[in-house]
């Protein structure tokens, strides 16, 4: 069966980028078709990324918090883990959000076509779905095809080797688990499995976990987690042998054990690769680089005037909120508005325990770019709220332009760091200087107060910290 559809805008991929672009375009009065190969909308983020991982991290947090309470007078029994129920809780969270997108698509009259889409020309796309092929003729296209996990070729195919999607399935709780890759996704999933009872090791090729973050932030995280994870930095996996009784891993590098080590499961979390090469974009004249990224300008336009690309497929940082903002710009440009994607700051958050969060420039980047910056760091050991919460390991750091004292970046490590980061992002976008932040009255006692206090430290009005 063949169907033909004509539309002003076709959006390929219904992740945070794709559905946000489709909805904004529809809200601006355009006729929109949204193509998605998955059975549900929401892309990686809602189905197998941001959302299910946070549902499981919530479970992990409650378990860990309950354990911590013993030191201040409340002891709970050992947690009884019902994996089926935890899985259903996670699935129900995902379903609530993906079903919500179905409703939002209907409300906006966005036509959803289910199936795998491939370009056949500069204004045509064919979607291969359960009911056969649908040919879509479009005036404009937005490619929002996202990314997928990177595999390592030397690791054998085995049920016990999983990626982030496999880890979120939560089939069992392995006794010994190796997380290969010390980035955000690996550490978040490691946090979940450690709370559920796995003994988790993390191996990272570089000399720092979460390499994009400043070292001081990561040091706090690593110190807090020294008993929770066996962290092997500057070390790499060179071979994995699948045997009946487990996966035997050979390491090389600074912390490499002398003999192969047995694990019940390996989570490979070494990064994600863009899906730019999978939909015959070149047949529409769109240039895709050898890694699968699609180059765009600051209006998200590809080298073909009426074809745009957004989200993970256009490059780093591969984050849902970046995709959403790019989506809005692309849809607005198609509708005739003169908008640009030129953010001052894109927040990054590791929802680990403690959380690590940063926005704007890091000290590492400032150094690389030769910028003259100064920073102020407020230690949470001096925060009443952190002390009352028995979580004083964190700090709040603000980075200022040395001459203008304008804020250029900020980083927080500690509980709820991710929730606190928004204020710093806003300050950067608004061009606030240290005085603006210091003179803003922050409520006491909050962790947020530490942002105001860091600015006061920079201004020199606080000098007597412990
Ligand atoms: P995607 O979400 O990847 O969506 C692309 C969609 O396109 C997919 O549904 C795919 O099926 C579809 N598609 C691709 N090609 C075709 C085709 N040819 N035809 C039809 N459909 C197609 N980001 C955050 O900001 N915060 C987080 O906390 C966070 N946590 C994460 C946790 C994990 C475990 C993972 C894996 C990722 C996480 N991310 C997080 C990253 C985030 O999920 C991505 O940055 C985001 O989903 C990118 O959105 P996107 O719209 O570009 O692409």
From TrEMBL:
Disulfide bonds join 45-50. Its cofactor is FAD. GO terms for biological process: 2-oxoglutarate metabolic process. InterPro entries: Class-I_Pyr_Nuc-Dis_Oxidored (IPR050151), FAD/NAD-bd_sf (IPR036188), FAD/NAD-binding_dom (IPR023753), FAD/NAD-linked_Rdtase_dimer_sf (IPR016156), Lipoamide_DH (IPR006258), Pyr_nuc-diS_OxRdtase (IPR001100), Pyr_nucl-diS_OxRdtase_dimer (IPR004099), Pyr_OxRdtase_I_AS (IPR012999). Residues 346-454 form the Pyridine nucleotide-disulphide oxidoreductase dimerisation domain. FAD binds at residues 54, 117, 312, 318-321. It comes from the Bacteria. It catalyses: N(6)-[(R)-dihydrolipoyl]-L-lysyl-[protein] + NAD(+) = N(6)-[(R)-lipoyl]-L-lysyl-[protein] + NADH + H(+). Residues 8-327 form the FAD/NAD(P)-binding domain. GO terms for molecular function: dihydrolipoyl dehydrogenase (NADH) activity; flavin adenine dinucleotide binding. NAD(+) binds at residues 181-188, 204, 271. Its EC number is 1.8.1.4. Keywords: Disulfide bond, FAD, Flavoprotein, NAD, Nucleotide-binding, Oxidoreductase, Redox-active center. Pfam families: Pyr_redox_2, Pyr_redox_dim. The active site is at residue 444. Binds 1 FAD per subunit. Belongs to the class-I pyridine nucleotide-disulfide oxidoreductase family. NCBIfam families: lipoamide_DH (TIGR01350). The active site is a redox-active disulfide bond. This is Dihydrolipoyl dehydrogenase. The lineage of its organism: Bacteria, Pseudomonadati, Pseudomonadota, Gammaproteobacteria, Alteromonadales.
């Amino acid at each position: 069966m063949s169907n033909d559809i004509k539309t002003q805008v076709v959006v390929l991929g219904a992740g945070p980028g794709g559905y946000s672009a489709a909805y904004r375009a529809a809200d601006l009065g355009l006729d929109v078709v949204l193509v998605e190969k998955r059975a549900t909308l929401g892309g990686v983020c809602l189905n197998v990324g941001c959302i299910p991982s946070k549902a499981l991290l919530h479970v992990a947090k409650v378990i860990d918090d309950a354990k911590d309470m013993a030191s201040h007078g409340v002891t709970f029994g050992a947690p009884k883990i019902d994996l089926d129920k935890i899985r259903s809780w996670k699935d129900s969270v995902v379903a609530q959000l993906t079903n919500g997108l179905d409703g939002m698509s209907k409300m906006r009259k966005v036509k959803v076509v289910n199936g795998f889409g491939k370009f056949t020309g500069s204004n045509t796309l064919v979607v291969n779905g359960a009911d056969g092929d649908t040919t879509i003729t479009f005036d404009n296209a937005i490619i929002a095809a996202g990314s997928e996990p990177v595999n390592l070729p030397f690791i054998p195919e085995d049920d016990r080797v999983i990626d982030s999607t496999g880890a979120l399935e939560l089939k069992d709780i392995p006794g010994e688990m190796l997380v290969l890759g010390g980035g955000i996704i690996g550490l978040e999933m490691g946090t979940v499995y450690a709370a559920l009872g796995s003994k988790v090791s993390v191996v990272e090729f570089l000399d720092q976990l979460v390499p994009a973050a400043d070292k001081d932030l990561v040091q706090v995280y690593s110190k807090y987690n020294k008993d929770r994870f066996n962290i092997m930095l500057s070390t790499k996996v060179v071979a994995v042998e699948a045997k009946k009784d487990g996966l035997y891993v050979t390491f090389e590098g600074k912390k490499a054990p002398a003999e192969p080590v047995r694990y019940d499961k390996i989570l490979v979390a070494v990064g994600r690769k863009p899906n730019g090469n999978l939909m015959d974009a070149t047949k529409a004249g769109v240039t895709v680089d050898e890694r699968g990224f699609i180059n765009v300008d600051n209006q998200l336009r590809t080298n073909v005037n009426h074809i745009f690309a957004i989200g993970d497929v256009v490059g780093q940082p591969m984050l849902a909120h970046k995709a959403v903002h790019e989506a809005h710009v692309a849809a607005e440009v198609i509708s005739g508005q003169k908008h640009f994607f030129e953010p001052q700051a894109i927040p990054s958050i590791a929802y680990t325990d403690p959380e690590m969060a940063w926005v704007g420039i890091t000290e590492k980047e400032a150094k690389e770019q030769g910028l003259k910056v100064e920073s102020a760091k407020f230690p949470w050991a001096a925060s009443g709220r952190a002390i009352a919460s028995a979580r004083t390991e964190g700090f709040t750091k603000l980075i200022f332009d040395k001459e203008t004292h304008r804020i250029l970046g900020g980083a927080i490590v500690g509980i709820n760091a991710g929730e606190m980061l928004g204020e710093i992002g806003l300050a950067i976008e608004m061009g606030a200087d240290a005085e603006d932040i210091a003179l803003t009255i922050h409520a006491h006692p909050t962790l947020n107060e530490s942002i105001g206090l860091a600015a006061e430290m920079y201004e020199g009005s606080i000098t007597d910290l412990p």
